[in-house]
Design goal:
The protein has about 300 residues and is of the alpha/beta class. The chain is built from ten helices and 15 strands. About 40% of the residues lie in helices and about 20% in strands.
């Protein structure tokens, strides 16, 4: 199958297009840059043709997809800077990318009568309570601009298409970009004390594992809303940080051990300094994946171990 992938310069898009080629599909990548040949870690996009595309340009989106005529689109491109999205002068741009750009892609998919995969987020919910959010739950109440823009993208896709996968993820990390793990390792190497919030609960998502699932989805016709994070239960950001440092020390980096670094759990209120309000409950119910015949993502500790072996 020929698959058009947006956002290949990001963490997920890079892994998706490489997974497509590993599975024998023809992937065509796109992003804003005039050219793209590799990732932050130095790895190239395997064999993939690349087409520069501004998804906020409706005519460009339509012309590009009509020319390429893919059999499916996996839409990974998004504005993901959550705090920056709160700036008054950024709001229009955030919605232009996450809502309008998504709508333009959905319109083209409708014209071509092809399925679209849209990557969304737990931030479409209000993050209250302790019960995991179910994929078909419609109790939307985003807490911030980013969440509102991603919800608007969801609604654009679901209102235009029947052939769609809306896949909500959380706490993303991948080789091609910055993320919580890289931040913890960088700060942990230069500080002897860290404070990490322990009252926001969720599960990480490794883009390498997610890419496998998304490529498996596209040809199945099992459309709908799904939640996809790694398995292994629900944890706090503090739990995640503690495991990052434990595994990093075990891989031969004593600077992350308890004799050099103290990690203290704190509440969100104690931590402060966040422009955007964050959800306390990012638990996502992923049972629908297995019920629909998809293989769940591996345990998050296993994913973290594989990731650290790549970057350390």
């Amino acid at each position: 199958m020929k698959v058009f992938v947006t956002g290949v310069a990001g963490q997920l898009g890079h892994d998706v297009i490489n997974e497509l080629y590993a599975r024998g599909h023809e992937g065509i990548g796109s992003d804003l840059a005039p050219a793209y040949s590799g990732a932050q870690d130095g790895s190239a996009v395997v064999k993939a043709p690349y087409i520069p595309l501004d998804i906020t340009d409706r005519n460009a989106v339509n012309e590009t997809l009509m020319k390429v005529r893919p059999g499916a689109v996996i839409h990974c491109a998004a504005w993901t800077a959550v705090d920056l999205a709160e700036d008054e002068d950024k709001r229009d741009k955030v919605f232009a990318i996450n809502e309008s750009g998504t709508r333009y892609i959905a319109e083209a998919c409708k014209a071509l009568d092809i399925p679209m995969v849209y990557i969304s987020t737990d931030y479409v919910f209000n993050g209250e309570g302790e019960k995991p959010w179910e994929p078909d739950c419609k109790a939307y109440a985003p807490l911030n601009v980013y969440g509102a823009s991603k919800l608007a993208g969801e609604q654009a896709v679901s209102s235009l298409l029947d052939k769609f996968f809306i896949v909500r993820i959380a706490w993303v990390f991948g080789l091609n970009g910055n993320n919580f793990i890289r931040t913890m390792l960088k700060i942990g190497a230069s500080h002897d004390q860290l404070r990490v919030v322990d009252d926001q609960i969720g599960t990480p998502t490794y883009t390498l594992d997610l890419a496998v699932l998304l490529v498996s989805m596209i040809g199945t016709g099992r459309y709908g809303y799904y939640h996809a994070t790694n398995e292994g239960g629900y944890i706090s950001w503090y739990d995640f940080a503690a495991e990052i440092f434990r595994q990093a020390e075990a891989l031969g980096h004593p600077e992350y051990g308890p004799e050099h670094l103290t990690v203290t759990p704190v509440t969100t209120a104690e931590y402060g300094i966040s422009k955007a309000k964050r959800p306390f409950n990012s638990r996502l119910d992923k049972s629908k994946l297995r019920e629909s015949g998809f293989t769940p993502l591996p345990d998050w500790k296993d994913a973290l171990a594989r990731y650290l072996r790549e970057i350390l």
